[in-house]
UniProtKB/TrEMBL annotation:
CDD domains: UDPK_IM_like. Gene3D superfamilies: 1.10.287.3610. This is Diacylglycerol kinase. The keyword Transmembrane applies. The lineage of its organism: Bacteria, Pseudomonadati, Bacteroidota, Cytophagia, Cytophagales. One of its GO terms (molecular function) is kinase activity.
Length: 131
């Protein structure tokens, strides 16, 4: 049985979807102060990890924590934008949706902070005591 031919333009559409995703990240970075803060924190964590020479498993934990925070922040931004679109006037449910989305970011960011303390705390403490 012959393999079905790929639909023309399928690859082009898939590649374009990555472009839309990067455009969304760029738009969020340009408009969201909290996302820029998280970008700076991520850069600091990567720099600290490089300086301390953390092992591969700890790099994985740091990468997952950074990705989770960025993902939560991007979803929060989307929820806020969509809520503003469908409810330009104040509504209690719209406020609740925005508050819950922001709360999700807070929970993920606190989890990332714990990861950071567990990964970076011991080597920093050892360097500080050894200095």
């Amino acid at each position: 049985m012959a393999k079905p031919a790929a639909r023309p333009g399928l690859l082009r559409r898939r590649l374009a979807s990555f472009g839309y995703a990067f455009r969304g990240v760029g738009a969020a970075l340009g408009s969201e102060v909290h996302l820029r803060f998280h970008a700076a924190a991520a850069a600091g964590a990567v720099g600290l990890g490089w300086y301390l020479g953390i092992p591969r498993l700890e790099w994985a934990l740091v990468a997952l924590a950074i990705g989770a925070v960025w993902g939560a922040e991007l979803l929060n931004t989307a929820v806020e934008a969509l809520t503003d679109l469908v409810s330009p006037e104040y509504h209690a449910l719209a406020g609740k949706a925005k508050d819950v989305a922001a709360g999700a970011v807070l929970v993920v960011a606190l989890g990332a902070l714990v990861v950071g303390l567990l990964v970076f705390g011991p080597p920093l403490w050892a360097r500080w005591l050894g200095a």
